[in-house]
Amino acid sequence: MLLRLRANASRADLESVFGLARELGYETRFLDGGKRILEATRPSPGAPSDRSRFEDLASVISILDASDAPELHSRQAKPEPTQVRVGSDCEAIFGGGCVSVIGGPCAVEDEGRLLEVASAVRRTGGAMLRGGAYKPRTSPYAFQGIAEEGLARLSRVRAQVGIPVVTEVLDPRHVERVAEVADMFQVGSRSMTNFALLREVGLASKPVLLKRGFAAGARELLLAAEYILDSGNSEVVLCERGIRGFDDVTRNVLDLGTVAWLKQATHLPVIVDPSHAAGHRELVLPLGRAAIAAGADGLIVEVHPDPSEVHSDGEQAVSIEDFGQLIEAVRDLVKLDGRRLITPNLERVQ
Ligand code: PEP
Ligand code: MN
Q1: Smallest Cα–Cα separation from 326: which of 103, 98, 85?
Q2: What is the rounded CA–CA span in Å between residue 257 and residue 275?
Q3: For 145, which of 44, 116, 135, 309 could close a Cys bridge (C-beta 3.0–4.6 Å)?
């Protein structure tokens, strides 16, 4: 049962709602930031007369149908933007006027290279390191990532460089282990509708980067986020990474219209992955700039000094120099609309 409460209900009036709920065996929780919609649930169905007993209370305006409740991701439920902070020192902040850029290889491979890229990302102003230990590949015969060994390498590099990491979790059974290494979970495009995985990361207490499925609508992305929010984790960052089109000059079609729409529809931060959208390194900088201009709260970019060495996505990896150039462009763009680029505090001991 959903109760719509008066905005100016007194403490005593509210207490009579909670008291009646307790007496009748209902558990309660607010569904919105403004504390106007209260959900009351019981393990077994309540008596039909319960409804009228709640309706009689002074602070209750009406009983709503379940479909009337504002969804947790919506601006209706929470008008002010959510800021997601990542890392023990909040090294990255997404949303609410803060922009952060994530850089790193597609997959965790050679540890020396990972260390080199992580240090360069940090030095040039990247707030976080990316890199997949588990890789979701279309073909079961393609390189699948180096799994547990990849997590161990990420963990060592994270500690050495002092940079928070985001890495993909593919399997609900791996959530606990990945959480030991990651500062943020990545749920990839191919996993956007893995509801068991969404529920599991929703139970964890780490932020989640949720990528849009390449054939999913904006509404489907928001409902995937809703699974995480409804499970108790409010730290979700959405990511547009390109959708499937009919032309193969780019790997995907970067849907910036949807980025602008999402910024209005939801309070959650929205970032853009220009690498998987473009598929070609020469296009990553212009798409990254366009994404920030469209209002994105950050970027996630694939970076590698020698793409000939890698087993996945080498053709879309930008050099360290190009990554640095992108950071400078983002810095200039965010200044234009009064936002702030979050960059590492380089005074901290490495
Ligand atoms: C990735 O980030 O390397 C990746 C596989 O991305 P996506 O899920 O967007 O394809
Ligand atoms: Mn990739």
Answers
A1: 103
A2: 18
A3: 135
DSSP symbols for 105-173: -SB---HHHHHHHHHHHHHHT--EEE-BSS---SSTTS----HHHHHHHHHHHHHHHT--EEEE---GG
What pTM, to 2 d.p., does this model score? 0.88
The answer to whether 158 and 167 have CB atoms below 8 angstroms apart is: no
Model confidence over 304-344: pLDDT tens digits? 999 999 999 999 999 999 999 999 999 999 999 999 999 99
Any atom of ligand 1 within 6 Å of the Cβ of 277: no
How far does Cα 113 stand from its chain's mean position? 27
Mean pLDDT of 70-75: 93
**Could you tell me if 161 and 122 are in contact, meaning their C-beta atoms sit under 8 angstroms apart?**
yes
Phi, psi at residue 253, to the nearest 5°?
A: -110, 115
Which residue among 189, 210, 237, 243 has the greatest number of ligand 1 atoms within 8 angstroms of its CB, and so is best to mutate? Answer: 189
